[in-house]
């Protein structure tokens, strides 16, 4: 039986492994961001609006196939962050009537003094209360060779470029994401949207 891990909603947890295609949009088109489609059917599942859409730096929006807002990702700013060893992001699910519910936090190292210099993610409520984090990023996102790994070291989602696609495209505007069974797909692409922004790609303005 598949272990379901709903973070945004159990509606986005599939019982089987799913392969998605991500196509980035340049900033001159709809303010940047990217479109997520199922690999086989080419059906659009999610869209991510870059900060150029509403002109707010450090703010991203994940939408479903109908264009309804699902997840708001916002980077915490101010003097506290300027002296902190981490840059902090918050992910909020968007409820009816505009209510925001915190579902995850992402910590991006802001200093070389951070041990195990990696990006860490904690969920609300915590998936594993015994660990300091629930997930972390392994690998290097700009090379499209990275994974989201849980606190037990299991890969829950993997970012990569299909070899056939790589031969056809010199850029990384098209890449694949494999999400394991039971994992919240909306959460995965919310994290990927933040990684895209951190490394100055399509969501950044």
UniProtKB/TrEMBL annotation:
Name under which the protein is recorded: Protein LURP-one-related 6
Family: Belongs to the LOR family.
Domain of life, source organism: Eukaryota
Alphabetized Pfam families for the sequence: LOR
